[in-house]
Amino acid sequence: MNADNPVLKTLTPIARLLALLAGYLLLGLAILVTAEILLRRFMNISLQGGDEFGGYVLAILAAFGFSYALIERAHTRVEILVERVGWRTQSLLNLVSSWCIAVMAAFMAWRAYATLDESLEFQSLSGTPLMTPLWQPQGIWFVGLLFFGVVATAIAVHSTLLILRDPRRLNRLYGIKTLDEIIEEETVITEDNTGAIKP
């Protein structure tokens, strides 16, 4: 699907990389929490900062995941309504939804920058024993939200062009996934040495 979509063809590799980084951060957090539990249980030792880093990781995870979820059309939609209207109405609804997400993403990035700027101005530190400079996690968080804003805006602009030229393609690229698309994604096709295709 991304092959015939210039917007997603350009942005998907970056979104996938950010999503992978977020996944590794989550894995690291899981290891840290496990180590914290074992050390407390068996050695009565606590790693300082597990809670603090957990909060940072979850915020970064969400920010990095938004873009990939948008590209994969994984955000929640009210399918029961959209599936019962004609393709022209669907294209209008998809256009409106793309612009709503773009505006919300831009707002989130703007507020994230305001928070980051304030932390830099006042050299804010976390209220924990680690005293982490808040601009560090907030900077990473802002990058994720900024990229989400770029992706959402690019999709909204592309949707606007498509509704004027090819509304059906707009539905295909940015609408709700069809059952066939979901099945295709869930089915892994491999080809053995004899050329036979097997699930």
Automatic annotation (TrEMBL):
It holds the Pfam family DctQ. Keywords: Cell inner membrane, Cell membrane, Membrane, Transmembrane, Transmembrane helix, Transport. The keyword DNA repair does not apply. Residues 29-156 form the Tripartite ATP-independent periplasmic transporters DctQ component domain. The chain crosses the membrane at residues 14-33, 53-71, 92-113, 140-164. It is a multi-pass membrane protein. It is found in: Cell inner membrane. InterPro entries: DctQ, TRAP_DctQ. Part of the tripartite ATP-independent periplasmic (TRAP) transport system. Belongs to the TRAP transporter small permease family. The complex comprises the extracytoplasmic solute receptor protein and the two transmembrane proteins. This is TRAP transporter small permease protein. It comes from Terrihabitans rhizophilus.
